[in-house]
Specification:
Transcription Regulator spoIIAA, 4-stranded mixed β-sheet, 7-stranded mixed β-sheet, binds S-adenosylmethionine, about 325 residues, 9 helices, 15 strands, Rossmann fold, alpha/beta, about 30% helix, 2 domains
């Protein structure tokens, strides 16, 4: 369907209103990648992200039953309306549908176009891919969490589990980590992480390892070896059932076990940063209370996600 006039006007005025507040904030903090619209109006199920001079627009599918997406025409018109309002060239707009997933179902690849650009965050460079996957390679809601990890990393051995494109590892290395270990199942994402590390001139400073394996297997091996880290970042997907895993992972079910395992691998005064984007997630306080979790959600939610609050974060400190 086409974008109705009322929705077009609603989108323009919502974007203008938000940009009045967000643009000065972004300029003040030199942030070039941020969320400009997050389903603020009920009939506009859109997440719109600015990546420098590019726009990434996702329509969020609302239900599994029947057709609950407006469709390609609607998305294109909404995206071009947003681009015109924000002063983005129309050929720099990428439009996707974020489908509701059945449990464990993977998002499908979107294209093979490989439209990649380099963006800057906190003075660091990140390659993002706007065309091929639903996610671009840099999760914007964790901007503050990454900075927090950098601030703690001087002289530290840092383990980044479910490392994806290595953004936490890059921040840790830039913060002075003496080593980083990035663990992910995907060889492609680890290569991407290496490119991010290299483009920041960090690959040859310190000792950086990229381990392609299941986190559960990695943790068993590390426990056998008695390995220790000063900082562990544990920011897993909500659910994972890749064929190369010997078991499934459901973070609501498995977080107590994962957190306890990681905690056991911390050096003295070491810290574990655990974060999840799972909806209706409850930290198992009863099982984990001896580890004295400190809730850092409020401190790690940035201005552009203040309304949607997509993640929850806790810090565990080894004594
Ligand atoms: C949501 S991303 C993690 C985001 C990342 N922490 C960041 O901040 O950029 C999920 C990642 O987990 C990886 N993954 C999923 N299951 C895994 C497993 N069992 N072991 C290792 N990596 C896994 C995927 O390949 C993907 O790169």
């Amino acid at each position: 369907m086409a974008l109705p006039d009322g929705q077009r006007k609603g989108l323009i005025s919502a974007l203008k209103r938000k940009q009045k507040h967000l643009r000065p904030w972004a300029n003040r903090h030199r942030i070039e990648c941020y969320r400009v619209f997050d389903c603020e109006a009920g009939d506009l199920p859109l997440q719109i992200d600015l990546y420098g001079n590019h726009l990434h627009v996702c329509e969020i599918e609302r239900s599994n039953e029947g057709s609950t997406a407006y469709g390609q025409d609607w998305r294109s018109e909404a995206a071009q309306t947003a681009a015109a309002t924000l002063g983005i060239r129309s050929d720099r707009v990428f439009t996707k549908l974020r489908p509701k997933r059945a449990r464990g179902e993977q998002h499908r690849k979107q294209s093979d176009r490989s439209y990649c650009v380099t963006v800057t965050e906190s003075g660091l460079q990140f390659e993002i891919n706007l065309s091929d996957y639903l996610d671009t390679g840099l999760f914007l809601d964790h901007r503050i969490t990454r900075g927090m990890v950098a601030d703690m990393s001087d002289g530290a051995r840092v383990l980044n589990l479910f490392s994806y494109t290595g953004a936490f590892s890059v921040y840790a290395a830039a913060g002075g980590a003496i080593s980083t270990t990035s663990v992910d199942l995907s060889a492609g994402y680890l290569e991407w992480a290496k490119r991010n590390m290299r483009s920041n001139g960090l690959l040859d400073i310190g000792f950086h390892k990229f381990e392609q394996m299941c986190v559960f297997d990695f943790l068993s091996r590390a426990a056998e070896h008695g390995d220790r880290w000063d900082i562990i970042v544990l920011d897993p997907p909500t659910f994972s059932n890749s064929r190369s895993m010997s078991r499934t992972m459901d973070i609501r079910r498995d977080h107590p076990e994962l957190i306890k395992q990681c905690y056991g691998m911390l050096a003295k005064d070491g810290v574990l940063v655990f974060s999840t984007n799972a909806r209706s997630f409850y930290l198992n306080q009863r099982f984990l209370k001896d580890l004295k979790p400190k809730n850092l959600t409020n401190e790690t939610i940035p201005e552009d996600f203040a309304r949607s609050r997509p993640h929850r974060t806790w810090l565990f400190t080894a004594t």
